[in-house]
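stage 2 :: seqdesign
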């Protein structure tokens, strides 16, 4: 049986999973801001800025934007502030590869936002990064004729029938 093979570039998935990335920060209000009586709401929006691969490791860089709403010390006004915190996360790939293509989608898994005193806020955030990485590999495509296909099909069906009969005998 004579076959022809053709080489082409294909993608092999080398990572698919969720990686946790802790982001801890502290924010002290500037002097012109009113003191904090109570934290009302904390909104975190994570964003991936770059994904790069080197060897068997993938590095993900990003920035978490935080918006905090609070009730001022006099209790009469809702105020807020924004801050940002950069993060970096590393992922071990299951194989060392060149020409890696990867994507990472961030989301907030857990968040704690507390007023430590009237001027300072403590933020503990756990980001989840849904990561998928692919490596470009040389693959071979096997070309066979119709007659060769029929021969392979017959051999496959014969082997399946032999396997089925062997299983049936064991029962």
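stage 2 :: out
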């Amino acid at each position: 049986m004579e076959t022809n093979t053709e080489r082409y570039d294909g993608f092999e998935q080398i990572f698919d999973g969720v990686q946790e990335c802790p982001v801890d920060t502290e924010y002290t209000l500037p002097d012109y801001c009113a003191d904090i009586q109570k934290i009302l709401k904390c909104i975190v929006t994570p964003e991936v800025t770059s994904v790069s691969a080197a060897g068997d490791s993938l590095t993900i860089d990003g920035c978490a934007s935080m918006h905090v709403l609070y009730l001022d010390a006099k209790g009469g006004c809702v105020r807020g502030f924004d801050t940002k915190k950069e993060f970096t996360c590393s992922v071990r790939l299951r194989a060392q590869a060149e020409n890696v293509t990867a994507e990472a989608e961030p989301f907030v898994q857990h968040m704690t936002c507390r007023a430590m005193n009237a001027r300072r806020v403590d933020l503990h955030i756990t980001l989840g990064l849904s990561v998928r990485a692919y490596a470009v590999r040389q693959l071979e495509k096997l070309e066979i004729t119709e007659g060769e296909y029929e021969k392979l099909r017959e051999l496959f069906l014969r082997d399946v029938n032999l396997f089925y009969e062997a299983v049936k005998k064991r029962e």
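stage 3 :: structure notes
- The longest helix spans residues 146-170.
- The beta strands are 4-28, 36-54, 57-72, 78-92, 100-115, 120-143.
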